[in-house]
Give the backbone structure.
Amino acid sequence: MKKIVTIGGGTGSFGLLSELRRRKEGGEKIEISAIVAMSDSGGSSGILMDNYGVLPAGDLRQCLVALSPESDILRELFTFRYEDGFLKGHSFGNLFISTLEKISGDLAGAVKKSEKILNTLGSVYPVSFDKHELIAELKNGQKIISEKNLDNANLNGLEKIYFSKEIALNPEIPKVLEEADLILINPGSFYTSIIPNFLVKDLVKNLEKTKAEKVLISNIVTEKNQTDNFEVSDFVEKLKEYTGFDSLDKVIYNINYNLENDEVRKRYEEEGKFFVKRDENKKYKNIEFVGLDLLKKPDQNDKKHLIRTDFKKVVDEILKK
């Protein structure tokens, strides 16, 4: 049984975990654990936090749904979002997990109960149970407080990123990392979904102790005002600069920059989003860089024509014998 741990949050975690769950359903001998960022403060999660004192449920919900093989109706229920009325903007899954947290008395109990209800083929671990704010400090001295504000801020002049206070690591995570065979850092919003995990006290220390192979899956496109002009090695460099994490073994990145639809390319470029290219940075001689065609072909249901990572190819690479 190969023990795989993912680290991240948001849609990147959902895509990777969904593919890992499909492999497990297909008979692959893997054990899946997901470590999830807990700095979300916007949207439905932020409203529930402010009104009921619960912890953010949005990224947890996505991971739980991704790992669930249950009927389509149950998966649809957890992802359903109200479009009008006093519940407008809320996801049923967020309401469900937050209610379970109130009933259970803590988020750990709510997650375990949700795993049973959804019959997940893996375990989900909030990176921390401590409430906190994510803070970015720019080189001009400006401070941007709260994840929801960082999400839309210009962070190109970032000096440092940190929490409003020291927060403790989920006590279950050290054992999960110690027993892991493979640790995958998901693609996703770099400063709000990836970095916050590594800022939690002792996560980096435990990652450096584990003998597991540690793999970063690079984003395919840059984020406007966040990762402008980033090349593949910039994700490695900035992760080390802001969190101290320096024990990567492998980076998987995209080498296909050819979009069949010029309108999609134009739309992305107008939004300030460009393909992340592989640079020839020689300073990372101890890291294996693996370039693959990770550009997922759009399916008929993709009305927005989004650029997406082909996680089937990612998992093929990490599971190859």
